[in-house]
Each structure stands twice: as structure tokens, then as C-alpha cells.
């Protein structure tokens, strides 16, 4: 069974929210800042997969071509799951074997040595 975890992007402050910060700020209840300001935070789920370098792949991650990881469905063959959406919107793939995380949709690209 895959590990269920998330990362959280704060759109208001343009920064990642750490786990302890997230728990303190939200108090994990219905009165939380997260729910009252739900457009401030973006939750991105871990796919359960790692890229070619062993980096965890999350929703919203990008590769060198600008392709983005998302949850989706193929109506043609009734498949659904994590997929890679082509940067030019020409299609998508469910094949993560050669995927390399170089950034995400909020921070841009990371420099890799």
C-alpha cells in the first residue's frame, strides 16, 4: 500500500508550509484557517512514485519539457490515475519510468547539478 501524504503551498506568501506549521495553523478542524481561507492553500498529493533520481513525485511536479503531473482519466480506454500532461496540451501519459522532477507549477524549475 502506498504512503498517503501531502505537501502544502501557501499562495498568499508564495512558500511551502511545513508539517508542524500546517498543523498549528489549521488545528485540523472545521474552524481552521485552511477551510475559511481555502483559496490560500493548495494541497498536492504524493503519487506514491519516485522519479529516475529517487525524488518523490507530487501532483503539480514538472519535468524538463514542462510536462505536469496530475490526476486524470482516459475516456478512450477507461483508465484513471496519476498521469503526465504534455506541456503543449497535446496529450498525456501514464508512464513515469523516465520522469525527472525538475520543479513544480508554483516555484518553477530547480537547478540540478
Structural class: mainly beta
What is the helix fraction of residues, given as a range?
10-25%
| Largest β-sheet summary | 4 strands, antiparallel
Residues in β-strands, percent: 35-45%
Number of domains: 1
Count of extended strands: 10
Query: What is the average of the pLDDT values?
Result: 80
Order of helices and strands: EEHHEEEEEEEE
Cα(first) to Cα(last) distance is 33 Å
Uncertain regions spanning at least 5 consecutive residues: 27-31
Shape: globular
* Radius of gyration, whole Å: 15 Å
Strand order across the largest sheet: 2-1-3-4
Figure out the total of helices.
2
Task: Give an overview in words.
The structure is a single chain. Helix content is 11%, strand content 38%. With 113 residues, it is mainly β. The protein has one domain. It has a 4-stranded antiparallel β-sheet. The longest helix has 8 residues.
Please sum up the structure shown.
The chain is mainly β and 113 residues long. The chain has helices at residues 19-26, 33-36; strands at residues 6-10, 15-17, 41-50, 56-58, 61-62, 68-74, 79-85, 92-93, 103-104, 108-109. The strands form three sheets. It has a four-stranded antiparallel sheet. A three-stranded antiparallel sheet has the order 5-9-10, with no helix packed on it. A three-stranded antiparallel sheet has the order 6-7-8, with no helix packed on it.
